[in-house]
């Protein structure tokens, strides 16, 4: 460990800018998904940063029955105009993937800015021809609380933190990220963790952080001494994460974690030692 350094034993956080640099107009980027992983937001965020705004220069759709012709049209337009096209859940339309393979084979000189992003769960029906010509990226939730939180923080920009001026917001970001890591980690214990397997993912985390920012920013602008933690707790615990939970005992576990970690600990006092931030009472 001392000689080889941490990078050889710690899984790297996906660098989407580097993925884009390694790709080309003739090489699709294929994300092979695992439970809890969703690269769509990270691709959207990358597009925002380099001028491919979602809905404008980044066209995206979730594949399903009857969506093949529309997806083919998007690829044709994107290849000619230099757009990004993202097709999600390719495993749900395996019968059309052979058509996609033929479309890619016919692409001779697409616009150099064109990129095709594909997401799929592991499936034997995914055409080998597409895989051989593509840049393949395996996405999976980080293993362990530390890596899970590191992954969450890697996607939080300084601009987004500065957007909410409330002094409790950064502490709220920490506890929501910690809560998200805990519910993710329980899944590895099977039925000892959750009675039912739930698909908690990054979307839950992002929306919970957005809700927190909205409420705290409003409280700051209105100069409210009291923050509506009860409302925020309901939205995060009951609507976002709790909305996925169907088992009554799992719901009790979720509520207990949220009450203990994310509510009763706010605001959290941070102590700084050099470049390290630590919690003084956590």
UniProtKB/TrEMBL annotation:
Lineage: Eukaryota, Viridiplantae, Streptophyta, Embryophyta, Marchantiophyta
Dynein heavy chain region D6 P-loop domain sequence ranges: 26-138
Name recorded for this polypeptide: Dynein heavy chain
Dynein heavy chain AAA lid domain span: 171-261
InterPro entries the UniProt entry points to: AAA_lid_11, AAA_lid_11_sf, DHC, Dynein_heavy_D6_P-loop, P-loop_NTPase
């Amino acid at each position: 460990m001392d000689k080889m350094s941490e990078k050889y034993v710690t899984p790297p956080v996906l660098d989407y800018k580097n993925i884009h640099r390694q790709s080309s107009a003739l090489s699709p980027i294929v994300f092979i998904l695992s439970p809890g992983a969703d690269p769509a937001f990270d691709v959207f965020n990358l597009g925002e940063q380099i001028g491919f705004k979602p809905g404008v220069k980044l066209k995206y759709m979730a594949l399903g029955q009857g969506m093949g012709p529309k997806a083919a049209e998007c690829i044709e337009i994107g290849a000619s105009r230099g757009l990004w096209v993202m097709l999600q859940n390719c495993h749900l339309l395996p019968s059309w993937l052979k058509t996609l393979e033929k479309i890619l084979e016919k692409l001779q000189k697409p616009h150099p800015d064109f990129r095709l992003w594909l997401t799929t769960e592991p499936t034997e029906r995914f055409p080998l021809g597409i895989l051989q010509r593509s840049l393949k990226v395996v996405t999976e939730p980080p293993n362990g609380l530390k890596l899970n939180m590191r992954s969450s923080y890697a996607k939080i920009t300084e601009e987004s933190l500065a957007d909410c001026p409330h002094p409790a917001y950064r502490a709220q970001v920490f506890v929501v990220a910690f809560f998200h890591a805990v519910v993710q980690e329980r899944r590895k214990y099977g039925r000892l963790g959750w009675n039912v397997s739930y698909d908690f993912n990054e979307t839950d985390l992002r929306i919970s952080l957005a809700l927190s920012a909205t409420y705290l920013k409003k409280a700051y602008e209105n100069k409210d001494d009291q923050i509506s933690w009860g409302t925020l707790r309901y939205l995060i615990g009951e609507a976002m994460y709790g909305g996925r939970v169907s088992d009554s005992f799992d719901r009790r576990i979720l509520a207990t974690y949220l009450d203990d970690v994310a509510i009763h600990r706010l605001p959290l006092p941070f102590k700084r030692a050099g470049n390290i931030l630590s919690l003084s009472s956590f």
